[in-house]
Predict the structure.
Amino acid sequence: MGFSLPTLPFAQSALEPFISAETLQFHYGKHHQTYVNNLNKLIEGTPFADKTLEEIIQAAEGPLFNNAAQVWNHTFYWQGLKPAAAAPQGLLLTMIQRDFGTLDAMKDALANAATTQFGSGWAWLVLNQGKLAVTKTGNADLPMKHAQTALWTIDVWEHAYYVDYRNDRPKYVQQVLNNLVNWDFVAENLTKSS
Ligand code: MN
């Protein structure tokens, strides 16, 4: 059976003009699909074939970890994006103000992590010991390997932005933070984990 590419939670053109349909055609249709295909090849006929994605991520190393984690990371990234999303409110807003001062200060911390991650990787909003925090990880690494709960992420591999922004990672990061964060998804992740 194996894993399958999850359906995108929006149309491929829904994030324009900030992320183009062409980017999603490749990023979702090719890159994410390839991680799924590689994962399935690597687990076939092994004890991992019956495990959940999270169990594989926690137990595996090397290519199996990389492909499993990239499947998880991309699925999580898509869920965290939404056009014209509502602003944070309630418990999430209260915690943002407690742990960062303001929403803008938290966005600045995320932008800084996303732009200073050297090479491929991810920037994250996480819950760490009851507090909101911003982290960054290289390649396929992810918060669950560090006993943190992921609340939101931005992909800073070049394939995430090169079609639309060429080498301008800071502009891609700013446009996503200002226009595409699905705060309802962030709030749901916070509620589930507290
Ligand atoms: Mn990616």
Summary: The pocket of manganese (II) ion is lined by residues 27, 31, 74, 155, 157, 159-160 (CB under 6 Å). Strands lie at 121-128, 131-138, 149-155. The helical segments are 21-43, 53-59, 62-79, 90-100, 103-116, 162-165, 169-179, 183-193. The mean pLDDT is 97.
